[in-house]
């Protein structure tokens, strides 16, 4: 609600367009499955990872309630990727926390060790590569002139 208020506050009197861009992945891709498993591990230990997609939906809904109109999503580009479970693990090891939240280092290592074992079993190894597609999308929302300000 606070972000929606700010969006309308800074929009020009003639109206504006809020655009959120993000990478969308096949829910069955290695990256998506690894992320779900990591978030499950966080929840098991009492932490809740940030969910950017859910925050974006909440923001759009708050703006819609104030008169914003959702415009058709634009798929900007789609590309093929080869990814392995190890790539996700290595990437997360480089971050201070997990899932966008700060957690104790020992907790992080515990989650990553459990994920490593899970990935070995599910994917048949950490270095096994799998093909999938990713798409960069833009999701616009038009703020009408009569509701701005």
Mean pLDDT comes to 91
Helicity range of the residues?
A: 40-55%
- Counting copies of identical and different chains, the oligomeric state is single chain
Q: Quick one: biggest sheet?
A: 4 strands, antiparallel
Which band does the percent of strand residues land in?
A: 15-25%
Tell me the Rg in angstroms: 19 Å
Describe the global form: globular
Q: Could you spell the SSE succession in H and E letters?
A: HEHHEEHHE
The total count of helices amounts to 5
Count every beta strand, where a strand is a DSSP E run of 2 or more residues.
Answer: 4
Low-pLDDT regions: none
User: First CA to last CA: what distance?
Assistant: 15 Å
Computed structural class: alpha+beta
Outline the secondary-structure elements.
Elements: H1 2-10, E1 16-25, H2 30-44, H3 52-65, E2 69-70, E3 74-83, H4 85-93, H5 105-123, E4 130-143
Antiparallel strand pairs: 1-4, 2-4, 3-4
């Amino acid at each position: 609600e606070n972000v929606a208020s700010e969006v309308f506050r800074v929009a020009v009197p003639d109206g504006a367009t809020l655009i959120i861009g993000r990478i969308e992945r096949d829910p069955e891709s290695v990256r998506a499955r690894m992320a779900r498993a990591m978030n499950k591990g966080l929840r098991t230990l009492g932490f809740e990872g940030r969910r950017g997609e859910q925050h974006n939906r909440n923001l759009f809904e708050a703006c819609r309630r104030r008169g914003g109109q959702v415009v058709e999503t634009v798929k900007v580009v789609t590309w093929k990727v080869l990814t392995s479970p190890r790539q996700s693990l290595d990437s997360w090891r480089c971050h201070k926390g997990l899932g966008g939240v700060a957690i104790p280092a020992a907790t992080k290592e515990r989650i990553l060790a459990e994920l490593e074992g899970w990935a070995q079993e599910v994917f048949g190894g950490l270095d096994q590569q799998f093909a999938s597609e990713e798409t960069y999308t833009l999701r616009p929302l038009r703020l009408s002139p009569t509701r701005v300000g």
